[in-house]
Design brief:
Number of strands of chain A: 14
Oligomer: homotetramer
Largest interface: C-D, 48 and 48 residues
Number of helices of chain A: 10
Strand order of the largest sheet of chain A: 13-12-11-10-9-8-7-14
Order of helices and strands of chain A: EHEEEEEEHEHEHEHEHEHEHHEH
Helix content of chain A: 25-40%
Radius of gyration of chain A: 23 Å
Structural class of chain A: alpha/beta
Strand content of chain A: 15-25%
Largest sheet of chain A: 8 strands, parallel
Chain lengths: ~325, ~325, ~325, ~325
């Protein structure tokens, strides 16, 4: 932590800052510049957490030097992690494909989808049983009934099953059905839910919040890990910007950024990012080329009859074509699926 | 709802769209342009909700004509609403001041703050018992103990009490203590929580999400109202933009925009928006001038010892000065506090 | 300037950084933390401008302590400036109203507008002779002919005249007609134009770029001042964000931020920010309450026949009403117009 | 064009809209909904450009159906264009690599760079002779001297030469030296410059503005093409968002979006987007996978001594490695370099 004093700060202001630091058993290093004085803090900064040094007269600003997340931080865990969902690994060497409809609509469509995406190369079946929708009047999901359908379909096809949980109640039910939990963008900072997921010990995919910084995202992962669940996979799904040509702006740079800041696997969801079916294939290939550990893709037996997100869903045939086209990209990235 | 066809759309594409519409008992109005054909839909559009017309070949885009929120919509409720929190009204003619610390730290500081802000003109005591914090290692709030403190302080000073709830569990406890619930920015689309708050029938202040559009915000209000709780007050608290000179960018235009789109009262929180104490007074005055129904301001007996958000908190004296300076602005806006 | 080393930086990395600094005759102050080493630089940092310290192995990041703008900086010019446009001051104590149509359409409408806005209290007549338009097929302005019209109208009504210049050629012509130049949002970083305006010695209003940070904006002002023209007035006109309910998002916090960082006057243009006529009056009042030194408002004799930006223009009557309503806000802010 | 009336619009309001339309020789198609009335306009909409239909009482909003750009629009030019810079094509089947330093510093470094990037596979040598810099005190470029250096270096190595022009004066000089002009992000809406470049008939690369929508970007291209210069290549270089982990947010979705909306080639500049050297290789591969027609990469003989943008420049060796790694991605995309 570094405290930068204002040019006109008096000596007693600097002294007050130094006293605040040393009174907590920390060391203060002064750097007297020609325009400003800078005070460096050495020692366990959490002891200063409740002191508002910014408010000491003469203080201009305070700069943080180290990240607040530790368990998710590559600095303290330099080797990239592999997360195991049962016997299915996610991480280096793998290109994990998760596919399925936005919303679970009935058992039959889940069965059909499971068979189709398995045949094409997917390892996970996705599908929403609890749908967070902007309008209260939109379809909200089949809840436990949906979980039963996806479980059966996953088992029948030999796929792992991943579902979003949107509340503690949904979590309580979902843990009995799914192999992997998903925290959606809208709940990335639903801290109660993160903590409870952390206690659940079931692997979890944490989607990036709609306007979350990468730093906040890794802190959200830290909530889960610090409660005892180290099996966190991150998922970039687009951020909100001024550009409206796509539903969200896929921030593909997040892949190499996460790779440099964290040891956790990171996968990409181009379907929600683009919101337009025709953009999914190029963005999926780009994600693999950028180093993603996997992809989450919306697939629906009949996109034009989907209850949710039809326009961004692929048909079985389109998904199969995509998987075939992805193969050489996976090879180049030394990944298999 | 309007469907715009692509220039090269064939007649059978247009026919397919028309069929999709009429098959639900709705009417389709064709408008044959020189470049494109446009199809207008007349009737109850919710019947089309599960049809993905975008996917019919030849469709270019679909435009929505009417808002999805109804109960929060001024079009269907032209008169501005007054929300009653016990005997305290929020709405036209009022400038409701809510003040207090970011986090409840102990009983004494709540008592002191309550007395000070009441004397200055506040009607509500605020204070966080459940604190959503970016890092799991930051102070998370006193929970029920904090609620007891704020209740006692509010009662002693004759102030209404407002607290944020961050989960169903917190809600269950909070309803026994507070006069008004607060949904924070991070939970604006925590739909489970919104629905439960809607069932609680306790007045609620709904903060705008960090990157929520005004349309999404009003849809979130709709979640609460549609569950039976009409007593919703909106609170603008800054949105996330590229500009980092302030913690968030206060979107003061939201006040007249809400006024034109909804009948619900809207108050402004300049403390969280600015994040810097020196900007609060000018922004508070600006909020009143823009037509806000109230203000939420962070006040702390000793900002430099606050456990949270000290740099943006006002001292008692600063708050008193602000209230004095706000009076003539309230007069101009024909509001009292 | 502060250099933060990576946790794993070797002693020779730190030594290399120190050498790079001392080799330019500057001093390096080491602060050995428990996790990281920090190197503070003391002396004239511009000597390091061409050294890319970031690339020395072991360097994590480099933080700048002081702003790059000097002449626009309040730290070196603590008293708020008053800019004089002829005998008309802009700055403390004044509320300078600039009004007129978006585009100059003909002489008659300029005459009518000049008389109307003068009567209502404006000090400046605005009007675009060179219009930067998104589409090449939209109306681009009357150019020199327009300048003649606005000059005559300004003279007839006793108003100062302000016009946007969009190129060096436009500047060359405009200096013969106008009292004040305007640099529009799209040209805020058209550095050639800024420099030439700096050499012109005519007072200039510099609008904030569509997505310019306040820091970049002040650096743009520095371009003008450093060429010899100190008479710069800043104009906040809304920034681009994800929110589309208004044309741009008026960043009213910019007013107190500028006030704390610069001595230059700052005025607000609510017309371009809001893009909707009904939001202009509340935002104009809010701007005055936030401390703005003036307002730029679009006024048109017949908004529904305007060639540009009609929907956001006020009629004469609406402008007169607004001015009357602004008076008490100006009084409260101890400003006159 | 579609005009949506307010629910409470009276019949005479609708009649007024219809009259405004028919008075220009256009047709109005009424669609009477249960809640609102919609008026479709058929015919040449430019005739309505000067009518502000929004201001007719009862009008709620006006929606545009067709894009304002025509010459850059794929709808009217369905086949993807190949732009020829001398004998060097940019477009389908090509992966055009442009490489070189951010700023031209001296002749020797340009010679060295030209030889190195040519050997690695580049077709163009880039280098800034006119540098738009945020601060007036930063290095601004060697101007004509720099153009001489890059021309000689390009000729010596057998590379085409591309340079940014930032003003009409720079353009006048540059046309005598370069094979391709570059319009930088800050000048994307410097319409005077765009028009003059349009008259120059030299191929031009148009970078996307810092916060430009894709629609505005294509309209900027339209400015150039409509003046007679059809040889426009677009360049995505990152947009400004709230996320600060990278210098800008690379909007890679822009590649498929442009592909669907325009026939112009689009290349990607990952160097300026990322601002961090380590992220360039993954983003370059991702760009090719997403369908880009080329890449612009910063390369410097000694990044740690670069006068500008050193931290994001590759060394010769790193560039050579990147080109070798890009080859199989180019093969997959059926492109050669």
């Amino acid at each position: 932590m570094i405290i930068i004093m204002k040019p006109q700060a008096a000596k007693e202001n600097v002294d007050a800052v130094v006293r605040a630091i040393t009174s907590k058993g920390l060391q203060a290093h002064l750097s007297q510049g020609d325009q400003v004085t800078i005070v460096g803090v050495v020692g366990d900064k959490t002891r200063l957490m409740h002191d508002n040094l910014e408010l000491i007269p003469g203080v201009d600003k305070i700069l943080s030097v180290t990240e607040t997340y530790k368990l998710a931080n590559k600095k303290f865990h330099p080797q990239d992690s592999t997360i195991h969902v049962g016997d299915t690994p996610i991480g280096p060497g793998q290109l994990t494909l998760m596919a399925g409809p936005c919303a679970i609509e009935n058992e039959e469509m889940m069965m059909q989808t499971a068979m189709a995406v398995k045949a094409a190369g997917a390892a996970f079946l996705r599908g929403g049983a609890y749908k967070p929708r902007t309008s209260p009047y939109a379809f909200q999901g089949l809840e436990e009934e949906g979980l039963r359908y996806i479980r059966r379909a996953g088992d029948a096809a030999g796929l792992k099953v991943i579902c979003e949980v949107t509340s503690l109640k949904a979590l309580e039910t979902a843990v009995r059905y799914v192999d992997m939990l998903q925290i959606g963008a809208r709940n990335m900072q639903n801290f109660e839910l993160l903590k409870e997921v952390g206690r659940s010990r079931i692997p979890v995919m944490l989607k990036r919040g709609l306007s979350a910084t990468i730093d906040e995202w890794l802190n959200a992962a830290e909530y889960i890990i610090s409660e005892g669940n180290p099996d966190v996979v991150l998922c970039e799904r687009g951020i909100r910007t001024y550009e409206k040509a796509t539903r969200n702006t896929l921030d593909l740079s997040a892949v190499p950024v996460i790779r440099s800041k964290s040891h956790l696997p990171v996968i990409v969801d181009p379907s929600h990012a683009a919101g337009v079916r025709g953009y999914i294939a190029p963005l999926a290939k780009a994600s693999v080329a950028a180093g993603a550990d996997g992809l989450m893709i919306e697939v629906h037996p009949c996109p034009s009859c989907a209850l949710s997100d039809g326009p961004q869903s692929l048909t079985f045939e389109q998904f199969e074509t995509l998987c075939r086209e992805l193969k050489p990209y996976a090879d180049l990235a030394q990944r298999t699926f």
